[in-house]
Amino acid sequence: MELRPIGTLEVSVIGLGCNNFGQRFGEDQTSEVVRAALDCGINYFDTSDSYGAGRSEECLGVALAHDRDRSIVATKYDGPPDTVRASCLASLDRLNMDYIDLYQIHHPYLNAPIAETLGALSELVAEGLVREIGCSNFSVAQMQEAELAVREGSPRFTSVQNDYNLLNRKQEFDVIPECARTSVAFNAYFPLYHGLLTGKFKRGAPLLEGTRLGTASDARKEAVFTEENFDVIERLTALAEEHGRTLLDVALARLLYVPGVTSVIAGATWPEQVRANAESAKWELTEDLCRAIDEIAPSRKDARDTPSAAHGVA
Per-residue confidence at 130, pLDDT binned at 50, 70, 90? Predict the structure, then answer.
């Protein structure tokens, strides 16, 4: 598995999103999924203190109890600067770890200057509790504001994690080029559009039971299962099959060919899904194939955010 840098860290280009841990399944299944990831060369595990009210961190900590030295653990928090330390210590306790590799602010905190947040995070780095710091859901303007607020000799954000997939490519117009220009890692969440880009959902077919979209609200289903989306999916699937690959391969591999993209963070429920995600990183796309994909799923500034609770679709 290819590794790319986030500051001083070296992370696998396919990351494992841990949102399902402790929510859709418990410790035993989490350990199976994590073991499969490590066996495939995936070392990058992304969680948050908000996933399952902390249960995701707990399950991940159990799964990595004997493999901490083989893993890069990223987690996230929300809140004002004066709660950063308490949030970090609580995450460390749930993870049962001495340090966090990448500690990220989950959403911009707008009620205090970013310099105060950076100061609080810098203290964690100085104490050895955190190795690198990052942000999530930041715009270019917010990234630039944070960069200007960094004090001499203090750590800067080394990564940004935003919503990015072949049905929502507007990050390519601003955030990703800014990351490439400033050597900040860009990590994609929702790279499979809640599973829509895996190929398991067909136009007009009954929804699969037990899937995230199968149990989603009517509002989210309506936003996801559009005729336009299925037009793109069916054409991408046909293109993938022409090359002996899957829609999932197209969805993940194409993102990794965009300059500035470091890792795509895909969730998984079963070991075979982890293995499929890892396999996609082995596909060496040609320029002609990238152009063919882009003709079907072009970059659009007016693309809609991937429907989710965070984007106003509960």
Answer: very high
Instruction: Report CA dihedral (142, 144, 148, 153) to the nearest 10 degrees.
Output: 100
Structure tokens at 105: 């602010």
Alpha-carbon torsion, ordered 81, 86, 87, 93, to 10 deg: 160
6 forms beta bridges with 9
- Residues linked to residue 306 through DSSP beta bridges, in sequence order: none
d(Cα 251, Cα 246) in Å, to the nearest integer? 9
Question: What is the DSSP code (8-state) at residue 152?
Answer: T
- Which candidate in 44, 51, 103, 164 is catalytic? 51
Give the mean pLDDT of 68-96.
Answer: 97
Domain 3-196+248-285 homologous superfamily, CATH: NADP-dependent oxidoreductase domain (3.20.20.100)
Domain boundaries, the chain: 3-196+248-285
Is-above-0.90 flag for pTM?
A: yes
Our answer to whether residue 51 is catalytic in this structure is: yes
Please state, for a pLDDT cut of 90, what percent of the chain lies above it: 86
